[in-house]
Amino acid sequence: MSIKNNLEKFKMLMADTAESFGRNRESVELLAVTKTKPVEYVIEAYESGQRLFGENRVQEAEIKVPQLPSDAKFHLIGHLQSNKVRKACQFFSCIQSVDSLKIGKKIDNSCRELNKIMDIYLDVNISEEDSKSGFKNDKELLEIVDELVLLDNIRIVGLMGIGSHVNDSSKIKNSFSELITLKDILENRFPILKDLKLSMGMSGDFKEAIEMGSTMVRIGSAIFGSRI
Ligand SMILES: *Cc1c(COP(=O)(O)O)cnc(C)c1O
Questions:
Q1: Alpha helices in the chain, H assignment, sequence order
Q2: Whose CA is closest to atom 11 on ligand 1?
Q3: Fewest C-beta atoms under 10 Å: which of 34, 51, 192, 218?
Q4: What predicted TM-score, i.e. pTM, was given to this entire model?
Q5: Which residues form the pocket of ligand 1, taking CB atoms under 6 Å from any ligand atom?
């Protein structure tokens, strides 16, 4: 398996997909999800030109991030526990998995100490699976955003969602459209939230996500092979 080949093929497929839905070829970013994969894979992807990486565990990032040049940027895409916030703020350039006010405030606090501003996405549960983390209703989310927008060391840049795990394109698209509705609601209500990004789409549903307006797809197995 050549990661370089897989990456190039996938990027072509992403661009073609965007174009087929009337979108600009460059309008969707690729987050290469390297969780559970050895750092050599990350380095090979970096050497093939990839700069954006996704990891779901802080402990794994702690080992991998220092082995990459500083222009490799890592996004946290997995649920974040309170006791790992400080480390997460050191190793990640963006936290896509903010799913509570408490975590948002902790990130803000740690980043104040570290003298940085963290880009965050709000993790929204759009897949109707109770076990998943993420905000579950609009009212809860709006109340929390009321407070999060006041914090100086975090910047809400977008919404993240995991599509429904079903084999039905229209159901998958319905779940993504919930994220889009929420984006519109937030942008209308909070003038400082402009052009929120949409992190949606994985190896199995990136086409639906791109059709619906995703600005970043998070791709693991389609590039690095399946995880056991
Ligand atoms: C693992 C993971 C991905 C990538 O999944 P693939 O199906 O391997 O592309 C994307 N997003 C999140 C939140 C993940 O945990």
A1: 3-20, 39-47, 58-64, 85-91, 101-114, 138-148, 169-189, 206-212, 221-224
A2: 218
A3: 192
A4: 0.96
A5: 33, 35, 56, 77-78, 162, 202-204, 218-222
